[in-house]
From TrEMBL:
Protein's name in the database: Cytochrome P450
UniProt-listed CDD domains: CYP90-like
A Gene Ontology term for the protein's cellular component: membrane
Keyword Ubl conjugation: no
Residues that, per the record, bind heme: 464
Amino acid sequence: MAAVFLYLVFSVALPAIIFIVHRSSRCRRLRLPPGSLGLPFVGETLQLISAYKTENPEPFIDERVNRFGSVFTTHVFGEPTVFSVDPETNRFILQNEGKLFECSYPGSISNLLGKHSLLLMKGNLHKKMHSLTMSFANSSIIRDHLLVDIDRLIRLNLDSWPDRVLLMEEAKKITFELTMKQLMSFDPCEWTESLRKEYVLVIEGFFSVPLPIFSPTYRRAIKARTKVAEALSLVVKQRRIESESGEKRKDMLGALLASDDDGGLSDEGIVDFLVALLVAGYETTSTSMTLAVKFLTETPLALAQIMCCWGPYGIAGFVTVPYGSGHLSRGSAVHVTCNFLVQLYSLGFKKEEHGQIRAKKGEGEALEWSDYKSMTFTQCVVNETLRIANIIGGIFRRTMTDINVKGYTIPKGWKVFASFRGVHLDHEYFKDARTFNPWRWQNNSGATCPANVFTPFGGGQRLCPGYELARVELSVFLHHLVTRFSWTPAEEDKLVFFPTTRTQKRYPINLQRRDRV
Ligand code: HEM
């Protein structure tokens, strides 16, 4: 018995004690940002996971900011990590990419992305490929080439919707189709649909336990990734042949093949690059679409301002939207409309945004760039959705050297997490920060927002190259949704933040077509 006790002391307890003592004396020497490294090995990972399983968007960060301040030390996912919820520090991290900080993903994520993905590239190659991607998704390209397809594919999708949909699923399908068109000029067909099925399995892998032995989801994702890569590499081969015979297409693949002309990317490199672009825009844009609709539904004044069309019952289409504690009938709608109008005018409401755009157009006529530019309130809704519930809550980086921040030292090789959502939800920067209030973004509302405070698309060398594209996709989607349908949530659905920002039930809604309203 004594031998067993001694064995336990020497093999388990003693190393743990040495680890803790060594760790805390090293921390004192280095003057790390305040915080707690938690238990040996697991650190505070379990607290982090259980916190984000609640409805509260930032419980883990809130608690530690209250105790330690806006830059604190913790230990999550196997590594000591410094969290920053300070806009200045976040900006410092973003602006020093490649000099003091570098991006860092676990091997499991790199396997799914592919080693030639833009997200994993570094140095000059990253700069070159980032600017190529930016130039492919900038305003003039969207205006002159992409908008027409965005408008057409969104309409096609919405026209095929039944009376009840899982909005999150539909938004994902739309986003995938748009990306396939933009990257490789494919219209939706059986082939793209079967690719999408494999691709969905790849995406599931990003949110699974990344250990092949334990996680069938991760194993399936790796297999599916191989299938997606095989399918895409056939496309690349075919397009290379076409390109060599002088046939050029104005899509991302065309740009990548052209860049290959000065001795750049292999077929494998191009495939990795395409897969990463599919991944980067997929969950992000589709989740934002779904959440914008959810927040609008729960904010009737904003919904009225964005969509309403005058009809025989006052604000037509609005009559079925829940208001306050109950649902409106047509009779009561007239009454409530008066209150609404008073409130809407007091918020600077002039005329419905999308109804007005539609009124100037023939049936089925596509949106133009000037229409998009006139969607000013929609941009407020998009900003507010990204502020409150961006799927990218922040970014991880690794320090390349010892770094001084606010009088503390972050040791070389440590992880840092610049939390965007923590800043976006801070009352110091946004009044009533946890309330969805799109009017805060209107020019005349007096909202001040320095550039480093609102960073839903990151910044610096890794600024999201799809930021304008995502805004256009979201705006066009909202336009066609609100001008075609009224809707009600089919079930109560909660916003959750783990393993990613999403609604628990994929936001089921019942739809009514406007021409039948
Ligand atoms: C609402 C939608 C979107 C959000 C919120 C979003 C957000 C972000 C953020 C925060 C980053 C920075 C990551 C970092 O610094 O490590 C990023 C990077 C990136 N995004 Fe987006 N994104 C969105 C849509 C898109 C779309 C539609 C595309 C497609 C072109 C895209 C492509 C990328 C790529 C390729 C990167 C990596 C850039 C690099 O590492 O150089 N994103 N995105």
